[in-house]
Design brief:
The chain has 7 helices and 10 strands. With about 250 residues, the protein is α/β, with parallel strands linked by helices. It has 2 domains: about 170 residues, P-loop containing nucleotide triphosphate hydrolases (Rossmann fold, 3-Layer(aba) Sandwich), CATH 3.40.50.300; about 60 residues, no CATH class. Strands 6-7-8-3-9-10 form a 6-stranded mixed β-sheet, sandwiched between helices. A 4-stranded antiparallel β-sheet has the order 2-1-4-5.
Length: about 250
């Protein structure tokens, strides 16, 4: 059973009395345990696609399945991570990470053990009592990642989570995310505008066309992990996508 399956999916919006075809038709399969990156020009429907898989939106045509079921809404098995993190500034790091677990009624001892493990995974154990405003951008995204992983989702949906970070922090978080994915087996669907980041992180990279967004090309990345942005061979591996993406942006 696949983690994600889109069949003939289309999404349209009405703007100023006119219908805008934003996405599709798209057919896409993401296998369980895969790390798949989506790239494409701005406005091509990457975030729209992710929202459909998350259950935050509905398609106008076609079918969206996640973890074997038709998507009709959100579930704890499918968790989104956004660029801004969406953290609660009035809570400290530990309270942010455990927020969903507390709402779910997890006993305190079990909750504390789970949060301790997650904070260790994202290298924030020493900052459990810190407030969000005391953290750097990279540290905030680590908190957001830990909170997303807290309920042990089977599918992690990440919408440009590292876009606002400096290059060094972005690369470090990319390595940590690869390590976490390898240890948990979580399926990840990851949006980025950065082709090198996509090639560094993904088992597969999918290039989307300009609006209405469709899957133009797929590239499987057969390089050893963990990968780094500066790895020899990465640029040559993704070069075909770089050429195609440039064409789409210039259309």
């Amino acid at each position: 059973m696949s983690a994600v399956e889109l069949t003939g999916v289309e999404r349209r919006f009405v703007l100023g009395g006119k219908t805008l075809a934003a996405l599709g038709p798209i057919d896409l399969v993401v296998e369980r345990g895969e790390f798949v990156c989506l790239v494409g020009p701005s406005g091509c429907g990457k975030s729209t696609l992710l929202n459909l898989v998350a259950g935050l939106d509905r398609p106008d045509a076609g079918e969206v399945r996640a973890l074997g079921e038709i998507v009709t809404g959100t579930t704890p098995d499918r968790i989104m991570v956004f660029q801004d993190g969406g953290l609660f500034p009035w809570l400290d790091v530990r309270q942010n990470v455990e927020f969903g677990l507390r709402l779910a009624g997890m006993p305190e001892a079990e909750r504390r053990a789970r949060v301790d493990l997650l904070l260790a995974q994202v290298h924030l154990s020493a900052f459990a009592g810190a407030r969000i405003h005391q953290l750097s951008g990279g540290m905030r995204q680590r908190v957001a990642l830990a909170r997303a992983l807290a309920p042990k989702p089977r599918l992690l949906l990440m919408d440009e989570p590292f876009a606002a970070l400096d290059a060094q922090t972005r690369d470090r978080l990319g390595i940590e995310l690869q390590e976490i994915q390898a240890s948990t087996g979580t399926t990840i669907l990851f949006i980025t505008h950065n082709l090198r980041e996509a090639g560094c992180l993904g088992d597969r990279v999918l290039l989307m066309s300009g609006r209405p967004g469709r899957i133009l090309r797929e590239l499987r990345i057969n390089l050893p992990r963990p990968r780094r942005i500066e790895d020899e061979g990465l640029i040559e591996t993704i070069r075909p996508l770089m050429i195609d993406l440039r064409r789409e942006v210039e259309r």
